[in-house]
Specification:
With 182 residues, the protein is an all-alpha fold. The chain has two domains: 97 residues, Orthogonal Bundle (Rna Polymerase Sigma Factor, Chain: A); 77 residues, Arc Repressor Mutant, subunit A (Orthogonal Bundle), CATH 1.10.10.10. The protein contains eight helices and no strands. Helix 5 crosses helix 8, helix 6 crosses helix 8 and helix 7 packs across helix 8. The chain is globular and about 45 Å long. It starts with a helix and ends with a helix.
Length: 182
C-alpha cells in the first residue's frame, strides 16, 4: 500500500522534481543502506557507490513504478537488492579475473580476495538452496554461468517465457528467504 506522502513523492519525481528525490533519500536512505550493507558486507568500499546507483535508478525508473504491484518502499528495496547483487557480480568478476601467478599478484591481497569470494558464494548458495532443483539450475545457468535465456531454454527444452516465469517466481522466493539467511 502506498501512503499519501509516497504518492506525492512519486508524482513529483515523475515531474522531475529533484527535491522529491532528496526527500525520499532522507526518508529511506538508512534503510536502503542497511539492505546494501547486508549484501556487500565484505565490500565496504562499494557500498556508497551502490547506494548512489540505487537512488539514481529510482530516479530513472520512477515511471515504471506500479503501486498495484507493491509499496513504494518495497520497490525501492528491490532496486537496492538488485543493485547490490549487480555490484557483487561486477566485483567478483574482477576478483576471479585476477592473474594468479606470483609475479603479478601481491600475496597480501590474494587470500583476502579468495576469502571474500568464498563468503559471498556461501551466502548466495545458501539462498539458492531454498529453490527447487529446476529453479536452482536455471539461476545458476543464467546468473552464475551468464548464459542467455535462449541458450538455457534450448538446453532445458523449454521456451523463454517459461524461464521468465520461473525466474520471476524464484526471485520472489529468494527475496522472501534473504532475511533468514543474510
Amino acid at each position: 500500500m502506498i501512503t499519501d506522502k509516497e504518492k506525492l513523492w512519486v508524482s513529483r519525481m515523475k515531474n522531475k522534481d529533484e527535491d522529491a528525490l532528496f526527500e525520499v533519500i532522507k526518508h529511506y536512505g538508512s534503510w536502503v543502506q542497511a539492505i546494501i550493507s547486508r549484501r556487500l558486507a565484505f565490500l565496504p568500499e562499494e557500498q556508497d557507490e551502490c547506494l548512489n546507483d540505487t537512488f539514481f535508478k529510482v530516479w530513472e525508473q520512477i515511471d515504471k513504478y506500479d503501486p498495484s504491484k507493491g509499496s513504494f518502499k518495497n520497490w525501492i528495496g528491490a532496486i537496492a537488492s538488485y543493485m547490490a547483487i549487480d555490484t557483487y557480480r561486477r566485483v567478483s568478476k574482477t576478483i576471479s579475473d585476477l592473474p594468479l601467478d606470483d609475479d603479478s599478484v601481491s600475496t597480501s591481497n590474494s587470500p583476502e580476495s579468495m576469502l571474500l569470494q568464498k563468503e559471498y558464494e556461501k551466502q548466495l548458495f545458501s539462498l539458492l538452496d531454498g529453490l527447487n532443483e529446476m529453479d536452482r539450475k536455471i539461476f545458476i545457468q543464467l546468473f552464475f554461468n551468464e548464459k542467455s535465456y535462449e541458450d538455457v531454454a534450448n538446453e532445458l527444452g523449454v521456451n523463454k517465457n517459461y524461464l521468465y516465469n520461473r525466474v520471476s517466481r524464484g526471485r520472489k522466493t529468494l527475496f522472501d528467504a534473504k532475511g533468514d539467511i543474510l
